Amino acid sequence: MQLSKTRRKVAPVAAENGDSADKLDQLLLSAAVCNGEDLGPFVRKAFASGKPETLLHHLRHFSRSKESEIEDVCKAHYQDFIMAVDDLRSLLSDVDSLKSSLSNSNSQLQSVAGPLLSSLDSFVEARNKCQNITLAIESLRTCIRLIELCSRANMHLSGNNFYMALKCVDSIERQFLDKTPSSTLRRMLEKQIPTIRSHIERRINKDFGDWLVEIRIVSRNLGQLAIGQASASRQREEDMRMKQRQAEEQSRLSLRDCIYALEDEDDDGLGGLGDEGKDGYVNGGAGMLGFDLTPLYRAYHIHQTLGFEDRFKQYYFENRKLQLTSDFQVSSMTPFLESHQTFFAQIAGFFIVEDRVLRTGGGLISKMEVENLWDTAVSKMCSVLEDQFSRMRTANHLLLIKDYVSLLGVTLRRYGYSVDALLDVLSKHRDKYHELLLSDCRKQISEALSADKFEQMWMNKEYEYSMNVLSFQIQTFDSIPAFPYIAPFSATVPDCCRIVRSFVEDSVSFMSYGGQLDFYDVVKKYLDRLLTEVLDGALLKLISSSIHGVNQAMVMAANMAVLERACDFFFRHAAQLSGIPLRMAERGRRQFPLNKARDAAEEMLSGLLKQKVDGFMLLIENVNWMADEPPQNENEYVNEVIIFLETLLSTAQQILPVQVLKRVLQDVLSHISEMIVGALLGESVKRFSLNAIMGIDVDIRLLETFAENQAPLVSEAEANQLKTALAEARQLINLLLSNHPENFLNPVIRERSYNALDYRKVVTISEKLRDPSDRLFGTFGSRGYKANPKKKSLDSLIKRLRDVN
């Protein structure tokens, strides 16, 4: 039975002696108690006011009021309570009967289930034993498989097959570590698995470190081999071009058929770069080039398996970068000329290896990293080259380094590396190289010229002729001469030719493979400088200081004629080596670059010959200028001069080319003409007769006959040119012997017959001509003698020329 908890209103309780405040507090307290509220505030208030008795009094009063209400409720529900007690008594009797029935049923169940429970206990015990045995068998099987894996891992570790050992360890950790029934075995595995991995990492890092040490030596050998193959390939190309030039030369010189043949060429590529090792790693070429990348790829694969791929990539890059940095060190103890091949071969081998790693390493190094390394290497190599080139003072040293650097560029360009910066450095030092080369050639030419004895060169063997004549194309006839052969030049000519040819070849060698395809103009410019500044200047110095005789001057003039032919060969040779067609080279040919030395040599020869002639011309003083009769023979001086000239010709025509001989003869004859006119003009001849002039006319006719007799040696037209060298003397004698000398005043006649005469000389010489009537005592036997019309005409000419002057 449940009692309702309805909130009831508290009836006001009358107080006998309380005031309204106490009543109010009593009402509030009663309401709070009825409503189940907290009485703490009332208690605190009572104690705060110091009247707890009042609160106790109110509570007692409230309790007495509630007892009456309880009594009323009990009286109201008494009958219901009695009925409930009766119901409980009847229920108790039913419970007793039920209890007895349950006890009987339990007894019967215990008697029946006892044997069954004993059987069930035996079954449960047997089943537990079976489960334990099965668990033990499974544990044993697990342990056996685990032990097998451990044994296999140990076997792989012993055989340095680290990848398979790691796979076994990974299988143990993944499949058996959490399932191992033995805690001891589990603890052992948890301790040994990290140890094994650390051991493998240490071993593989040691192998990788050994490989890093070994690959430096291998890289140097690899670079030398690769550059050597590039050099061999270049040499084959040079040989092929040489054969092509020879064929072109044959086709240019003759119309014979050229025979062409195909030649097999071996592949000069770096073979054996793609071999694959037995263990599945691409070793990057363990055959021909002898470098093995298997340790590197094994280490990379192991680190990938260990989960340290990025760390190994960074470790590899940093170590290779340090190696490259150490390769940049140039020893100050060893000359760079001796160490440059090792220096560049080491760098070439380094980047050949990196190219192979990039293409076969499976992402071990990126293309950007390789390019960064290459940029660093190029910058350092350019810096080293700039520094070393600035210190070099020998052209050959600079050329050797340039050739090797160009081979380095060819080698690495095959692997996709940009070498333009290196080629730019070489081009930048082009002028310095040629200046050094010019300086070296200047010394060599000076030494060669200072050793010149101005004697014709003797050649006793055909190979000497081929080496000194044919190799420079300075021969004057096609057939091989009889030996011993006396060349029309001194030993200086082939020596200088060898120096110039070496200059051309060195210049072309420096300009070749430097990134510039058309470099003939550059080679030609420096060849011009060599010939015009160096060789021409040295020859001029030699001519002015060392030539003291006609024979020496004659050999020197012959040398210049031969060098003129050699210069044509030099420019053709430069064009051929530069890959320029000969027709283009000949089209741009300039004048003879040694013309100053040639002119000086011919002037020196002419001057020495003139000195000899001057000695003979002194005999002109013995001429009888006032002869009464025309002479029957030539004067003595002209005989001596002609004998000298004929003797000179017999020697000179064996040495000097025809054109040089013609120019020298023409200059000497012109000098003789000037000497004859000078004698008539000089103060030593006060007066001369017409008979003396007739004698001079005979002399000039003899000289003209001598010039005409040279027609077999030179052409007829050139023989006539030799006669024109005597034009001044001939025209002067013709004028003095002319019956109408006043025709000299006629411009047309003067231009045709007297164009070589100076009217001032004509006046002076004409005044010296003496008429026969002017002889001493001539007036006594010439009374009534008429004036000579020729004398009259000549006097008129002299007067009019004076008026013009």
Automatic annotation (TrEMBL):
Compartments, as annotated in UniProt: Cytoplasm, Cytosol
Any one biological process term the GO annotation gives: pollen tube growth
Pfam families the UniProt entry points to: EXOC6_Sec15_N (PF20651), Sec15_C (PF04091)
Organism: Escallonia herrerae
Protein purpose: Component of the exocyst complex involved in the docking of exocytic vesicles with fusion sites on the plasma membrane during regulated or polarized secretion. Involved in polarized cell growth and organ morphogenesis. During cytokinesis, involved in cell plate initiation, cell plate maturation and formation of new primary cell wall.
Predominant place of localization: cytoplasm
Family: Belongs to the SEC15 family.
Keywords attached to this entry: Cytoplasm, Exocytosis, Transport
PANTHER family: EXOCYST COMPLEX COMPONENT SEC15B, SEC15
Residue ranges occupied by any Exocyst complex subunit EXOC6/Sec15 C-terminal domain in the UniProt entry: 422-768
Domain called Exocyst complex component EXOC6/Sec15 N-terminal: residue spans: 58-227
Cellular component, GO annotation: cytosol; exocyst; membrane
Gene3D superfamilies: Dsl1p vesicle tethering complex, Tip20p subunit, domain D, Exocyst complex subunit Sec15 C-terminal domain, N-terminal subdomain
Protein name: Exocyst complex component
